[in-house]
Amino acid sequence: MNAEAMYAETIMDHYRHPHHYGALPVANAHAHDVNTSCGDEIGIQMEIKDGRIADIRFNGKGCAISQAATSLLTDFVIGKPLDEAARLQKDDVLELLGIELSPMRLKCALLGFKVFKLAAYGYLGSGEYND
Amino acid sequence: MTHHDFPLLQGTINGKKIVYLDSAATTQKPQIVLKGITDFYTTANANVHRGLHTLSARATAQYEAARQKIARFIGANDKEVIFVRNTTEGINLVAHAFAKSRLKKGDIIVSTVMEHHSNIVPWQLIAQETGANLCFIPITEEGLLDMQMAMELLEKKPVLLAITHVSNVLGTINPAKELIRLAHAHGTFVLVDAAQSVPHLPVNVHDLDCDFLAFSGHKMLGPTGIGVLFGKQTLLDRMHPFLGGGDMIKEVHLDKSTWNELPWKFEAGTPDIAGAIGLGIAVDYLMTKGMDNVFRHEQELLAYALQKMKGVKDVIIYGPGDATKRSGVISFNLADIHPHDLTTVMDEEGVMIRSGHHCAQPLMGALGVTATARISISVYTTKEDIDTFITALEKAQKVFRL
Question: What is the model's pTM?
Answer without folding.
Answer: 0.93
